[in-house]
Every structure is written in C-alpha cells, then in structure tokens.
Amino acid sequence: MAALAVADELDALGLRWRPSAPRFFCRTTRDVCHAIVAIDDPKRTAILRKHLERIDDPRLRRAFQAAASE
Prior knowledge:
The chain has helices at 2-12, 24-37, 44-54, 58-68. It is globular and about 40 Å long. It is built from four helices and no strands. The chain has one domain. α1 packs antiparallel against α2 and α2 (24-37) packs across α3.
C-alpha cells in the first residue's frame, strides 16, 4: 500500500488533480509487487526482468535482483 501511495504521488507530480486511472508508476509498482509474490505466475520472470533492465545503477540493480529472487 505504501509503494502504491508513493507511485500515485509520482504520477501526480506537477498536476493539480489526480489521474482517474493508474499511470506509469502505479501500474509498474502494482505489476512488480504482484510479480514478486506470485511465484506461480508465468509472466513473473518477464515482468521482473523488464523492471531490472530499467535500473541503471549496478548496486541498485543487484539489490533489487537479490530482493526479488526466489
């Protein structure tokens, strides 16, 4: 819930209103959180790999990889 609240704030930055539908940060946060806990989901690996590729900093990338691994 905290991650989604932060994602909502990021999506609304610079706006005076809240978007009615999830946008990039909310959608990405929801997908990554679901993929971390849904071990049986066939899309899990692809979602986590896609997010991992977005992380430029090698230390953060390794930390995320360690935290999200089985």
